[in-house]
């Protein structure tokens, strides 16, 4: 999961990365704590996506009154299903140069990869496309680790000299510490500013933590992550839910089959509204809760359920479908493909409430396609 | 022949006293797999489905020295420890079913296994089956009823079942079906399995089930392009409609840094004349063209 900017900065700062002076505000009354800072400040809404400035979610404030207004405007506002719970107020920084640096997992070589560039401040994918030669790549062996000479080499390529080059070693080492100690998939500073007085400072930070490791990081809270309310709700029931932009609701088991089902919807000229994977060994309850989410979603015109039971039992799925329909009154048509473990029992349970099942996903999709208009 | 597992496979089940471990030990026995022993620390001396349980992997091997494969059902937070235990005890094939193992753990034990010459399948995978010979995994027994010329390697469990099922329905058996798992870091990748299929006399055709994320399919395509794979390959890739930057359930299924997109994978395959099916069922049609 992606951490909010302030949380990522906090982690890096703990290991010695300089960040602008600032404070986090959770309610308009909190702005009194900003008195210790030097105005003007920049109010940055803590939302986990790029392009905040363009969305009007960052603004300059000159007085406490301004800051309070900004807090009132931002807090509670819902952007792309994500409610703003925190606003970071920071002092401005006099920037001479903007750099880029990150550490990620290198899937191909089964190690870590450090990326750096003199083209900071903008989307790194754009740099990769337009001028790949401006990206410095450093492979790090997980067993041997990151050595100082490697970092000095990167600093040199970035054109850093003197104390800035020394600072860069601190920054890279701190990033590596956060990356390995917090089970991160990505630690990125962009931009890493070289200030007018020659210091390195992290202006924006992106840290992604492996969800599966959260049990050993009690100081990381999902409250500080990119999960929307619906995704958080789905996680409680062991469901993987991703909201998409279409109108055909999808529920399937297994990530691959769920993606294949989305693709099938598209193949028939329709648009998937979601990715909802009930996972392996889904229970009646999780199926029920998942289906209820789709049935109460106003964007959705019809639902396609595609189950190939291995660990997952078709009778459990059928029971879940029936209890969802008992709890939610709906006219939305549901098309169910049910195959695999305990298929016969499952079909019987559905037949008793008048629900038809299909042999293949294509057949179910064909029927769905006929039942709705685009 | 077949690859990875066959009649001579003798299995140790790590985590055999847990729900999943004991249930799937039973299913594997029903399939005809030689399940020789189980391990759960503190539960040595018990039996599960008639299979003796030991406290440590070493104990099990001392008693039953011809065990050559381990399957791991141990919960995620303890799974890494079990993998090291199996490797250090000298087992050469370790199949990890457990999902949600932290990626950094997987990266470390996978690299360790490479240094020790051990093959890891998974983590977060459905396992391996050589139909009518042996199944070391959780793939549903009733689908794997026909052995034959098609080798399948797949990153997704349910899609593996789906495509194997349609092949069997069409009368086309499989040599070995390998679910390698959908995590970003896994022990054995698509290319490595395809190389094994190339060497396997029983496998005549290869099905590759891929998905968005990573560059495994692109690397396979490049290798096929070099002419080293002589057997026909057919592919299917899921995630055509997945938006970039969003993780689709599988920890590995995410298009990031512009890499691992559906388009780049399809293009890579098409450039080396590997047909890519638009739907899982279309795989059968494409394979049939070769078999005819």
Provide a concise account of the structure shown.
The complex is a heterodimer of chains A (374) and B (292). Chain A has 374 residues and is an alpha+beta fold. Chain A has helices spanning 5-14, 64-74, 124-130, 148-157, 162-181, 229-236, 255-267, 284-295, 314-327, 343-352, 361-371, and strands at residues 22-25, 41-45, 58-61, 78-79, 82-83, 87-91, 95-106, 111-117, 135-140, 184-195, 200-202, 205-209, 240-243, 248-252, 274-277, 302-309, 334-340, 357-358.
Walk me through what this model shows:
The complex is a heterodimer of chains A (374) and B (292). Helix content of chain A is 34%, strand content 26%. Chain A is of the alpha+beta class and 374 residues long. Chain A folds into three domains: 21-91, 2-Layer Sandwich (Dna Ligase, domain 1); 95-223, ATP-grasp fold, B domain (D-amino Acid Aminotransferase, Chain A, domain 1); 229-373, Rossmann fold, CATH 3.40.50. In chain A, the strands form five sheets. In chain A, strands 7, 8, 9, 10, 11 and 12 form a six-stranded antiparallel β-sheet that branches. A four-stranded antiparallel β-sheet of chain A has the order 1-6-2-3, covered by helices on one side. In chain A, α9 (314-327) runs parallel beside α10. The longest helix of chain A has 20 residues, at 162-181. The two termini of chain A are 34 Å apart. By secondary structure, chain B is of the alpha/beta class. Chain B has two domains: 10-121, NAD(P)-binding Rossmann-like Domain (Rossmann fold, 3-Layer(aba) Sandwich), CATH 3.40.50; 140-290, Rossmann fold, CATH 3.40.50.261. In chain B, 34% of the residues lie in helices and 22% in strands. Chain B is built from nine helices and 14 strands. Chain B has helices at 19-31, 57-63, 76-88, 103-115, 157-169, 190-199, 216-225, 262-271, 282-291, and strands spanning 10-14, 34-39, 47-48, 51-54, 69-72, 93-96, 119-121, 127-130, 134-137, 147-154, 174-179, 205-211, 233-238, 276-277. In chain B, strands 3-4-2-1-5-6-7 form a seven-stranded mixed β-sheet, sandwiched between helices. Chain B has a seven-stranded mixed β-sheet with strand order 9-8-11-10-12-13-14, sandwiched between helices. In chain B, a hairpin with a 2-residue loop joins β3 (47-48) and β4 (51-54). The longest helix of chain B has 13 residues, at 19-31. Chain B starts with 9 loop residues before the first strand and ends with a helix. At the A-B interface, α3 and α7 of A face α4 and α5 of B.
């Amino acid at each position: 999961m992606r951490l909010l900017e302030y949380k990522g900065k906090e982690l890096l700062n703990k290991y010695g990365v300089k960040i602008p002076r600032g404070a986090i505000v959770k309610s308009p009354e909190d702005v009194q704590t900003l008195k210790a800072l030097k105005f003007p400040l920049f109010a940055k809404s803590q939302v986990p996506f790029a392009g905040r400035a363009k969305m009007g979610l960052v603004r300059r404030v000159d007085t406490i009154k301004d800051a309070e207004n900004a807090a009132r405007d931002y807090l509670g506002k819902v952007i792309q299903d994500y409610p703003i719970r925190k606003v970071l107020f920071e002092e401005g920084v006099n920037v001479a140069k903007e750099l880029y640096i990150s550490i990620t997992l290198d899937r191909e070589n089964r190690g870590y990869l450090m990326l750096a560039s003199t083209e900071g401040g903008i989307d790194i994918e754009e740099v990769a496309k337009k001028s790949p030669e401006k990206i410095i790549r450093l492979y790090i062996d997980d067993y041997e680790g990151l050595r100082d000479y490697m970092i000095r080499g990167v600093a040199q390529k970035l054109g850093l000299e003197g104390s800035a080059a020394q600072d860069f070693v601190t920054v890279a080492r701190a990033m590596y510490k956060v990356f390995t100690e917090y089970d991160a998939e990505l630690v990125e500073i962009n931009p890493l500013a070289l200030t007018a007085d020659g210091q390195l400072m992290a202006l924006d930070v992106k840290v992604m933590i492996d969800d599966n490791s959260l049990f050993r990081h009690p100081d990381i809270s999902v409250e500080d992550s990119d999960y929307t309310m619906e995704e958080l709700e789905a996680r409680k029931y062991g469901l993987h839910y991703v909201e998409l932009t279409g109108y055909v609701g999808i529920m399937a088991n297994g990530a691959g089959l769920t993606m294949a089902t989305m693709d099938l919807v598209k193949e028939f000229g329709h648009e998937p509204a979601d990715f909802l994977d009930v996972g392996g060994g889904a229970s009646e309850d999780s199926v029920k809760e998942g289906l209820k989410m789709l049935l109460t979603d106003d964007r959705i015109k019809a639902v396609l359920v595609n189950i190939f039971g291995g660990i997952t039992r078709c009778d459990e799925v059928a029971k879940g479908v029936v209890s969802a329909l008992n709890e939610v009154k709906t006219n939305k048509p549901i098309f169910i493909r049910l195959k695999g473990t305990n298929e016969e029992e499952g079909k019987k349970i559905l037949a008793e409430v008048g629900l038809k099942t299909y042999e293949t996903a294509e057949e179910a999709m064909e029927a769905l396609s006929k039942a709705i208009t685009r | 022949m077949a690859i990875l597992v066959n009649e001579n496979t003798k299995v140790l089940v790590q985590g055999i006293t847990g729900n999943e471990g004991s249930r799937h030990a039973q299913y594997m026995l029903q399939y005809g797999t030689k399940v020789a022993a189980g391990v759960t620390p503190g539960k040595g001396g018990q039996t599960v489905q008639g299979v003796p349980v030991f406290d440590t992997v070493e104990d099990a091997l001392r008693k039953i020295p011809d065990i050559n494969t381990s399957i791991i059902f141990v919960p995620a937070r303890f799974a890494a420890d079990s993998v090291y235990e199996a490797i250090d005890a000298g087992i050469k094939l370790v199949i990890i079913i457990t999902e949600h193992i932290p990626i950094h753990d997987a990266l470390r034990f996978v690299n360790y296994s490479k240094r020790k010459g051990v093959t890891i399948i998974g983590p977060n995978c459905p396992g391996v089956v050589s139909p009518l010979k042996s199944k070391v995994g959780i793939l549903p027994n009733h689908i794997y009823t026909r052995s034959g010329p098609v080798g399948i390697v797949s990153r997704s469990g349910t899609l593996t079942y789906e495509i194997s099922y349609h092949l069997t329905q069409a009368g086309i058996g499989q040599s070995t079906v390998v679910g390698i798992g959908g995590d970003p870091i896994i022990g054995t990748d698509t290319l490595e399995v395809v190389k094994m299929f190339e060497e396997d006399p029983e496998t005549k055709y290869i099905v590759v089930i891929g998905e968005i994320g990573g560059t495994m399919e692109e690397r396979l395509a490049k290798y096929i392009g070099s002419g080293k794979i002589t057997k026909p390959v057919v592919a299917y890739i899921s995630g055509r409609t997945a938006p970039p930057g969003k993780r689709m359930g599988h920890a590995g299924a995410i298009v990031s840094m512009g890499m691992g997109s559906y388009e780049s994978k399809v293009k890579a395959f098409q450039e080396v004349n590997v047909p890519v099916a638009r739907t899982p069922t279309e795989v059968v049609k494409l394979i049939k063209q070769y078999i005819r």
